[in-house]
Amino acid sequence: MTTLVFGHKSPDTDSTGSPILWAWYLNEVKGGDAEAVLLGEPNTEAAFLLTKWDLPKPRIISNVEDGQSCVVVDTNNPAELPANINGADVQAIIDHHKLVGGLETKGPIDITIRPLACTATIMVDLMGDDAAKMPDWAKGAALTCILSDTLEFRSPTTTDHDRAVAENLAADLGISIPDYAAEMFAAKSDVSAFSDAELLRMDSKEYEVGGKKFRVSVLETTAPATVLDRKASLMESMTTVAAEDGVDQVLLFVVDILNEEATLLVPNDLVKALAEKSFGASVGGDAVVLPGVMSRKKQIIPNLAL
Questions:
Q1: How far is residue 247 CA from its own chain's centroid?
Q2: Residues 118/162, Cβ–Cβ less than 8 Å
């Protein structure tokens, strides 16, 4: 049986590139039979990765069959995985997020969860000496994932090891990290073709806080004005998206990569109370700027409180 390798729903760059990278390793180095798949349409930066390195877009699946062999990467949260994930035969988990719980497996499995900024960094480590066998496209995919998850080393999740791995990959490829990151972020920032609902779901994860269910959405951009100019319609769409997705509220953080701050849209008193309690913010309108906030994993989710 072919082993499916996939990341989380609403695939970002790491959840698009890392399954491709690991499927290559399982096939070409370990002699297995693996296929990278996605759980949704890749975001604009992930689409850039595919185009830049001339990679076919993996097929998109909506669920997995009972007994389907699979490897889960860039998440361990059942809410971000196919509904039947506990019916599948999960072989391994490779991740860099906190352990959530709720996954059940058919037997003992390999689990690697490390406090690094990017799944691709972990994968390069797990490959060991075999990482030298990566073709240029695989090195490029890994580099793109690391620069994306670290926001070109600006994110507080960045470790010295992430930086070292990225710099080694860039050196092998003869790529200037600042120039390449600028090209990536330009692709990430072009969201003109997406509807408000698509933007709210593009890079989002569900979390429960104080008995309330939230879809926590992050848009990382070098041009925050292009998103904030749509503030009124985005806040209006939050009601529809929340109802369709079965959550109480959508939270949208627009992360300004260059100025290293986030703007949280504040459509109602619930979000106002959350912003004030979670971030010590003083909210006087329908948006609040949170200086230094760049990471959902390290700065947003751990601080959410009601």
A1: 20
A2: yes
Q: What is the pLDDT of residues 263-294, one digit of tens each?
A: 999 999 999 999 999 999 889 899 999 999 99
Q: Contact at 8 Å (CB) between 127 and 233?
A: no
**Element of type H or E holding 103:** none
**pLDDT > 90: what percent of the chain?**
90
Question: Rg of the Cα trace of the chain?
Answer: 19
Side-chain-side CA neighbours of 77 within 13 Å: the count stands at 16
Which region among 25-29, 86-90, 223-227 has the lowest average model confidence (pLDDT)?
Answer: 223-227
Locate tokens 């041009």: which residue?
223
- Alpha carbon distances (Å) from 169 to 142, 177, 179, 252: 8, 10, 15, 33
**CB proximity list for 230: less than 8 A, separation 6 or greater:** 196, 199
Is 70 in a helix, a strand, or coil? strand
How far apart CA 89 and CA 283 sit, in angstroms, is 47
pLDDT in tens, 175-217: 999 999 999 999 988 888 889 999 999 888 888 888 999 999 9
End-to-end CA distance of the chain: 46
Task: Say which residues have a Cβ less than 8 Å from residue 46's Cβ, sequence separation at least 6.
Answer: 11, 12, 13, 15, 16, 17
Write down the pTM of the prediction. 0.89
Q: 52: number of CA atoms within 13 Å, CB side?
A: 24
